[in-house]
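Suppose a colleague, Dr. K., hands you the sequence of a protein chain of 145 amino acids and asks what its three-dimensional shape might be. Before reaching for any lab equipment, you can write down a predicted structure in token form. Begin with the sequence itself:
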Amino acid sequence: MIKSVILKTLVASSAFAFSSHNAQNRTLPASGGNSVSESSFNEMNDECRPRRRRMTVELYHGGGYVNLRGTFNVKPNKCYSAEPFSSAKMVRVQGNRGAFMVCKEPNCGGSCYVYNMNQGNQINDSWFYIGKAYAVSYYWITPYN
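The predicted structure, expressed as tokens, is then:
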């Protein structure tokens, strides 16, 4: 139990340190048509890497995975903005490694909730975890790129 608390603290602190240095924050377009494939047009440096890690995230406005806001293709260790959401499903990730953080302020600031993905791949109703507010930014924290 102590190890998990220490891990969560280290993961959260590294995420905050990274997000404070990362001034750019962009919203990925919702999937449909060819918008997910277009989200990687500006990532030419990743083409040389044999294994590009990505995860698909489904964001929902309400608890219980109601009212899908969009499906997004995200890279690890980057903060993303989104329309207000309360629930999330993390799909198409190899294993359940790392953590997923949701925050109630843009740029992964304010009150945040860090969810260890070893516990599963869904966050239902983060409203209560971040101070009775919708999340507007999220971050996939992983030590492996």
